[in-house]
Design brief:
Blueprint: E1 2-3, H1 9-21, H2 27-46, E2 55-60, E3 66-76, E4 85-92, E5 103-106, H3 111-125, H4 145-162, E6 169-172, E7 176-183, E8 186-193, H5 195-200, H6 204-207
Length: about 210
Amino acid sequence: MKEMLNSTLPNEVQKRIQDGLGFGWAMEMTIDTLTDFLQASAKFLATKQNKDKPVALELRDINGGFHFATIVQFIPQEEAGADDGSWALSFTFEESDIDKNWEVFNFAEDPEPKTVFYDVSYAKHGISWRFHELDNTDKIAEGTPVQILCVIVDAVRDYMCLNATIDPDLSMGEIVTFHAELAQDKVYIGVTPGILLKQMVKADAAIGKVAA
């Protein structure tokens, strides 16, 4: 299984940011930023857990286009009357995976998940995001966290689609593993969270013994 750092993906993200946005970007920033976003998403949703319905954090661009989502839902035990269960963390590149009846947050519009992301980025990698979504003329500013994150996750999706039949697995250490599968001319991308992210949403004390 190929590690993301050893793939062509960081270079591709650097190229997209430099050519498309016109400013410098270090390749290691791609791994750090995506890692921080995934951890921040799990940390944020852990505070919004709801046994009655799933909760999701969507990454949409400034125009409302869907790019990625993090989902947390409670899976009860099958035995009748049992109160124990487990919290399941998942990710998706497909907007159709999000049910309209869920509790859904928008990273681009909700200040709370962005604040968590800022805090995680600074604590983990010393990154300070200072860009505003709009400039002083109310035009969309270049280089905002939302814009950068959309570039990164789009590049991940494109990389997985391109390599679906060649090298379908891509790892980010103990954070997540991406897997691409081609079926009926469509590429499906699965994202498996690592133990670090799973532990962020387990909330053992609240629900008793929780499955891993």
